[in-house]
Amino acid sequence: MRLFSRKDKIPKGNHSVAASLSTGSVNSATTQLSMPSIKQSKVDLPRPPDPELDPVGYLRSLGAVRERSRIILEKVTSDDLNHFDVDLSKLPDVVTFVAGLIKV
């Protein structure tokens, strides 16, 4: 289950070369999948800890994790990650794995 893979080190000036050499780009026709529609229900979340008083607690809070996950997913869908390619076909496997870890 490899959702992320490291990109080859190619200078930023050669972006067109990097795109042609990439084998796992999210823009390639072989790996591009339509993102499944995810319906998130609105749940009242407890207030996260104050980042000034408890930075670790804040970063581990559900709201902070969701916020950072959303930012990363936006970068993935716009192919804006500098160091990794993402194989979105593995996303359902990752969701199943993580959901198994978080059992309520």
Automatic annotation (TrEMBL):
Tree of life domain: Eukaryota
Biased composition (Polar residues): 17-40
Regions of compositional bias (Basic and acidic residues) in chain numbering: 1-11, 41-50
Ranges where the record places region Disordered: 1-52
Protein name as it appears in the record: Uncharacterized protein
